[in-house]
Automatic annotation (TrEMBL):
Annotated TM spans: 81-101
One Pfam short name: Glycos_transf_1
Signal peptide range in chain numbering: none
InterPro entries associated with the record: Glyco_trans_1, Glyco_trans_4-like_N, Glycosyltransferase_grp1
PANTHER family: SULFOQUINOVOSYL TRANSFERASE SQD2
Name listed for the protein in its UniProt record: Glycosyltransferase family 4 protein
Domain of life: Bacteria
MF annotations from Gene Ontology: hexosyltransferase activity
Species in which this protein is naturally found: Anaerosacchariphilus hominis
High-level lineage: Bacteria, Bacillati, Bacillota, Clostridia, Lachnospirales
Length: 411
């Protein structure tokens, strides 16, 4: 890079202290010599209420690891679809007003798109006003995600969302997608093409540097017993399909298979998950540990035998490579998955775990029992395979270098 710092404006409704990978991306860009400004909301994810110390009038401007942070007023997510819609809308309104009157200067705009897609609008408006390139990193497909997560099937509503998505794509010079299936789906839109060339680039997610294999050590929250320990980390949401776990645990208990499940995280589905755990009579097999600092996760993983991930059964999630998968693989974890599509493909190619049919507790319990029965040598091979595949296809330095080329290009 030249001696003059390139100014990068990042639009993301979520940012530190909320835990999203954009935090690491921005910190790395600062290290690489960019001047980074993040326009974000007031932290309230996933609990739905403002974090302590934050409000519409407190901490609206911050510095975090050399990053300039501008926090726009929004309505917290709270509970229910109405409040969630107001949360999405309020960020767009605040962002739109900000884009009209801000004096912040930038050379490029980078939009970190996890739901909602609406959050991209202020970034597009700013880029159009300043006549600078706009890049978007798509991790949730819209309107597909809206239909799956909310159950909305109205053609008028989905059509309006689709038009908004086309408007956003049309005004972005590059569209980055997290899986090959996402690339194909986005390329079905005319708005993803310019002068006969696709604007879509496959740029998978990586895991932060602190995700790497560590040695097990005594932890008060992970019991030192003979059970086969399975761990899930991250958001406990409806999309994760975690209701399969209590059913699976019940089957394993009936077979007298000594397993335990550690859930590290929190989210909207947690109360229902706990209810299902009690209904299945497997409370003694589950340990819900709540949210932890991301830097602590590798140690929790190291003290368990396998890591779990799952999805609800629909086409959209089969196109997804979740960030959780990269984190597990970076830490060298054997993986048990109730998933299909891209996730199943990666685990199969890497030979780092077992994959069950979606929504099938019988199949999942069989594969869990199968993995438990493998020798330490066989499981060690899976660990090595996971880390090796991660370094080859999801390596952080290589992916950051690729993005660097786009950020420094003239377009």
């Amino acid at each position: 890079m030249s001696n003059t710092k390139k100014k990068l404006l990042v639009i993301s409704q979520y940012f530190y202290p909320e835990q999203f990978r954009i935090n690491d991306l921005c910190a790395e860009w600062v290290k690489r010599g960019y001047e980074v400004t993040v326009v974000t909301g007031i932290p309230n994810y996933p609990q739905g209420k403002f974090y302590p110390g934050y409000s519409w009038f407190r901490k609206t401007r911050e510095e975090h690891q050399g990053i300039h942070v501008i926090r726009l007023p929004l309505i917290p997510r709270s509970h229910g679809s109405l409040m969630l819609a107001l949360n999405y809308l309020s960020f767009v309104i605040s962002g739109g007003i900000w884009s009209l009157f801000t004096r912040v200067k930038a050379d490029k705009v980078f939009i970190f798109e996890v739901s909602p897609m609406t959050q991209a609008l202020p970034g597009v408006w700013y880029a159009k006003k300043k006549k600078i390139p706009c890049l978007i990193y798509v991790q949730d497909l819209w309107p597909e995600n809206v239909e799956v997560v909310t159950g909305i099937h109205s053609k008028k509503i989905l059509g309006a969302i689709s038009k908004m998505t086309d408007y956003i794509y049309r005004n972005c010079q590059h569209i980055f997608a997290t899986s090959p299936s996402f690339v194909k789906r986005i390329e079905e839109r005319k708005s993803a093409w310019s002068d006969g060339k696709s604007k879509v680039v496959y740029w998978p997610q990586y895991a932060e540097e602190f995700y790497h294999p560590v040695k097990p050590k005594p932890m008060a929250e992970i019991l030192n017993d003979d059970s086969f320990k399975i761990i899930f980390t991250g958001n406990i949401g409806y999309a994760q399909g975690l209701d399969i776990l209590p059913q699976t645990a019940e089957l394993l208990r009936k077979r007298k298979v000594n397993c335990s499940f550690y859930i590290v995280g929190d989210g909207r589905f947690r109360p229902e998950l706990e209810k299902k755990i009690d209904e299945c009579g497997v409370r003694g097999m589950f340990h819900l540990l709540g949210r932890k600092n991301p830097e602590e996760i590798p140690q929790y993983l190291a003290n368990c035998d396998a890591a779990f991930l799952s999805f609800t059964d629909n086409e959209l999630f089969q196109m997804t490579i979740p960030a959780k998968l990269q984190s597990y693989m970076a830490c060298g974890m054997p993986i048990i998955a109730a998933a299909g599509g891209e996730t199943a493909r990666v685990i199969s190619e890497a030979k780092c775990g077992v994959v069950s049919k979606l929504r099938n507790a019988e199949a999942l319990s069989n594969l869990t029992q199968e993995l438990r029965g493998k020798t330490m040598e066989e499981r060690m091979t899976m660990k090595k395979n996971a880390r090796k595949y991660y370094e080859k296809y999801f390596g952080r330095p290589e992916l950051l270098n690729i993005m660097d080329n786009f950020l420094n290009s003239q377009i």
